[in-house]
Amino acid sequence: MSRIVVTEFMDERAVARLRSGHDVRYDPGLVDDAPRLRTEAAAADAIVVRNRTQVRGDLLAALARCRVVGRLGVGLDNIDVPACEARGMKVIPATGANALSVAEYVVGSAMLLLRGAYRSTSAVAGGEWPRAALAGGREIAGKTLGLVGFGSIGRRTAGLARAVGMDVAAHDAMMAADHPAFAAHGVRCVSLDALVASADVVSLHVPLVESTRGLFGAARIAAMRKGAILVNTARGGLVDEVALAAALSSGQLGGAAIDVFAAEPLPRVPHFEGCPNLLLTPHVAGVTAEANERVSFLIADKVMEALR
Questions:
Q1: Which fold has domain 99-280?
Q2: CATH 3.10.290.10 correct for 3-97+289-307
Q3: pLDDT tens, position by position, 169-192
Q4: Cβ distance 48 to 5 under 8 Å?
């Protein structure tokens, strides 16, 4: 019987599946207790993490007998994959399992920010009637969505966007312009500069690596269409948060939905205070009840298979 350590939240039924054949230590609080986490890691044959557990450095050194790292999500920037593989550890992400959840977040937040009418509840309940002020909202149909990155999540987002009448363009530095996936999803392949200059909504779907760190800095944000919307559900280090706040405050951007941050949990940051048309969420775009179930069971099954 193998020992499996789960350091962050996971669907309880998937945990029960793991326990049907293995000794499982399930404690979502382990991620915030480094000494206890290292102690548990020393006896682990497999470790299951989300995005906050850093599988590198001291924790990686403590995983002396570990054979499998299960990632409850798709991003791997919190895991030193080459170092894990050099130690004979298999790293397993939940590829595709939360794509629908993220896609719905992107299209839904774009609708909210373009329309601009959904934050009037307190005013209307208080006797105000800001109808004229809110009459200039924009429809999503006919707008252009620019996807930076065209993997499984980008492709799922493209499908939803086209279903509500959007034109979709994409740029992926890792894909050839004639890759069949673009045509298969009804998406135009364009350069990054062309995408930034033409899209009404720009959505980021790339990993955080050295070549993408600060990808949307002040200059690139300034190159976006006036009034455009920026959505980031990928990784926080892709966007210069201070430059984003300045572009929202000046009216250069029409809105932003940011689910990921350079520091998580996000500390109090004065640059976001008072920003108009800004939606901030705590890294939950890929976390719904349904997505958590799909991700958890996928990883449970793959970890058990790898331990056989």
A1: Rossmann fold (3.40.50)
A2: no
A3: 999 999 999 999 999 999 999 999
A4: yes
Cβ neighbours for 28, distance < 8 A, ≥ 6 positions apart: 6, 7, 8, 9, 10
Would you name the residues annotated as active-site residues?
Answer: 235, 264, 283
Give residue limits of the domains in the chain.
3-97+289-307, 99-280
Query: What integer is the mean pLDDT of 138-158?
Result: 97
Distance of CA 15 to the CA centre of its chain: 23
For residue 14, give Cα distances in angstroms to 18, 156, 176.
6, 25, 38
**CA 200 to CA 229: how far, in whole Å?**
6
- pTM of this structure: 0.93
Decide: helix, strand or coil at residue 10: coil
21-49 pLDDT, tens digit per residue, is 999 999 999 999 999 999 999 999 999 99
Q: What whole-number distance in Å separates Cα of residue 205 and Cα of residue 49?
A: 21
Same fold? 3-97+289-307, 99-280? yes
Q: What's the whole-number average pLDDT of the chain?
A: 97
* Structure-block tokens of residue 297: 């069971």
